[in-house]
């Protein structure tokens, strides 16, 4: 049985755009991926650790605990042995209260990869490979979240390219989710239900190749 940790934010938590509601497990992409892997004969348990507002390595000035680096090594220890860790973060690095660019976020991703590889797992347990997924490019934010993300679609331009560079340097796997789907038509930031379905099905194919 493979254990796969998805370490992410609201895009993977499954928030329904313009609401505070959540898609069911089999509707959000980690669940879609697990079910697709099962149909392909791959026994895998997908562990969701997806926190709304999580950044790569920065705190939210209004809500505590959104720094993705804090406690990550311990999460790897808790869930080991792991066959794969999927990192899909970065969107919240570009909230309006932050003056970040894609290079900053790529360095945040590098720090997270380092924490995973240096986690204090039990002797003999594997250091899991890492798949970094660049979130789909942000569109103009709309609806209740617009003030929180105003300007994010401009600040985040080039994020996937920056992530790809870091992944090449660190020798870890990379996927640009924009090659599979786009951000929400409703709020411009998250994923709509049909996009979760498409992403989860394609992610299953990518993950299957990494596990076999």
TrEMBL record:
A family per Pfam: Lipase_GDSL_2
InterPro entries found in the cross-reference section: SGNH_hydro (IPR013830), SGNH_hydro_sf (IPR036514)
Coiled-coil residues: none
Origin superkingdom: Bacteria
Residues covered by the SGNH hydrolase-type esterase domain: 9-194
Transmembrane parts of this sequence: none
Name this polypeptide is given: SGNH hydrolase-type esterase domain-containing protein
């Amino acid at each position: 049985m493979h254990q796969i940790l998805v370490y992410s934010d609201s895009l993977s938590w499954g928030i329904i755009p313009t609401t505070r509601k959540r898609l069911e497990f089999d509707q959000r992409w980690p669940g879609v991926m697990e079910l697709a892997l099962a149909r392909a004969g791959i026994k895998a348990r997908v562990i969701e650790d997806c926190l709304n507002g999580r950044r790569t390595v920065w705190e939210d000035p209004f809500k505590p605990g959104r720094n993705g680096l804090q406690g990550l090594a311990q999460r790897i220890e808790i869930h080991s042995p792991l066959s794969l860790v999927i990192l899909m973060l970065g969107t919240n690095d570009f909230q309006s209260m932050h003056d970040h660019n894609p290079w900053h976020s790529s360095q945040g991703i590098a720090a997270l990869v380092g924490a995973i590889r240096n986690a204090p797992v039990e002797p003999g347990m594997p250091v899991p490979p890492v798949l970094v997924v660049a979130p789909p490019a942000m569109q103009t934010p709309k609806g209740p979240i617009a003030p929180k993300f105003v300007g994010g679609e401009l600040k985040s331009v080039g994020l996937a390219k920056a992530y790809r560079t870091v992944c090449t340097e660190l020798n870890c796997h990379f996927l640009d989710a924009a090659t599979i789907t786009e951000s929400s038509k409703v709020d411009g930031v998250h994923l709509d239900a049909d996009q979760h379905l498409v992403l989860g099905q394609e992610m299953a194919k990518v993950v299957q190749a990494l596990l076999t």
